[in-house]
Amino acid sequence: MTTTSLTPPATQRRRAASGGRPPGRSGTGTSRPGSAWAAPAAVFFALFALVPLVLVAALSLSSWDGLSGPEFVGLGNWKKLLDDPVMLKSLWLSVLLTVLGVAIQTPLSILLGVWAAGHQRNRAVLSAIYFVPLLLSATAVSVLWRAVLDPNFGVPAQVSWLFGDGNLFGVQSSAIGVLVFVSAWQFTPLHTLIYQGAARAVPQVLYQAARIDGAGTVRQFFHITLPQLRNSIITSMILMVVGGLTTFETVLILTQGGPGTDTTISAFYMYQKAFKSYDYGTASAIGVLLVLVATVISLIMVRLSGYGKMRSTMEGL
């Protein structure tokens, strides 16, 4: 028995010429761009990320004051960091600020993002106003809040019954609180935007089915919205961790590492070592250490969360 092909003869000839595959498709049946399209991005990443990182790693094994030639010292800079109490304290403070930032910004961003994804009255206007801090640089935000919280002329001086002597930068606990608050004020809109987009992508049929089953708004949030935001939550938290460990401008302008070394985080300590002590080798070692810590924490989060498997939250729809 013979089967008559319904494919036009011209199409059959083109497929035969291309090895039996439809033109413009790969062997897997999916059209993919060539690797040349990624070349510009790969070159840019290599020049401005990989090459500097390799140079900093090499410099971390050297002693250099910025004037004379680098002198190889092996692991001398790393051993010096292990014996430096300020460095160990700065690592602890970096982790503390990062954990506090994640703990405060994550729930706040999720709630605001889910709300901004709705259809409430005046939602667009309020969202636009709320996203204004996202348009400002960290330096501008720090200068703004330094003026607002100035102990002599700022808000604390006018509301002494709430802030006491008004010097929020003179005590470690309040200084850390200011750093966490300012960072949350600036970067929560970014993560809110991530959750807003993710919440809008949740299929409405899930909410419709939940309403038919009698589920209220709270149950819909915890049983539908949050599970659908799983991958976005991991992405947002990784960004928070990397950003928290590399925070610099906020500390430099608001507290300058004070009082004493009570807010001297690792990134600021790296700046002090490089541009005040002219110890570029030790500063480079701190930089490499921050990269390693941020990378390890990010990989652990991806591994434990199952995010690396990239399983769809819409499976079965």
From TrEMBL:
Its main location: membrane. Residues 17-33 have a biased composition (Low complexity). InterPro entries: ABC_transporter_permease, MetI-like, MetI-like_sf. Residues 91-301 form the ABC transmembrane type-1 domain. Gene3D superfamilies: MetI-like. Residues 1-10 have a biased composition (Polar residues). It is found in: Cell membrane. Residues 1-33 are annotated as: Disordered. The chain crosses the membrane at residues 41-61, 91-116, 128-148, 168-187, 233-254, 280-302. It is a multi-pass membrane protein. Keywords: Cell membrane, Membrane, Transmembrane, Transmembrane helix, Transport. PROSITE patterns: ABC_TM1. PANTHER family: ABC TRANSPORTER PERMEASE PROTEIN (PTHR30193), INNER MEMBRANE ABC TRANSPORTER PERMEASE PROTEIN YCJO (PTHR30193:SF37). Belongs to the binding-protein-dependent transport system permease family. This is Sugar ABC transporter permease.
